[in-house]
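Quick one: structure tokens for this chain, please?
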Amino acid sequence: MNELLSQEKYAERLNATGKKRYIHIKKEDREFIMKAFGVTERTVFNAISFDEKRGNTELAKRIRKLAMERGGIVMVKHPEMETLFDADRYMRQYLPNDVLLEFSLKDGGCDVFHRGEKVRRYENVDVRSIQNIQNWAMSLK
């Protein structure tokens, strides 16, 4: 519990600096949280991305608490792109325009999320096509 409180205080300090942050979690944890609270994927994204309009509710705080209990990591967004390779066999790229590229190493697909909503799915992605996907995703406003 003290760890969660310190996370909340840390989040308040980050708010004061204007830096965006999010809680990095695995896809299976997102799905677990959706089922646990009976909410949509969008609701989970709003909570873990500390959305200014929809991420400050009591429900959002409970979602973040569960995300942290399941191993979530508070990350701070910087203008550059961040790439994480996770144990669940996904490569996730966080782009500066609120885009998440989620590449599955299991099925070769890529889901593109913009502001928490899935906007496109690519099938059979090979290394040569990743830059085209990134370029398209960077064009999202």
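The radius of gyration is 15 Å.
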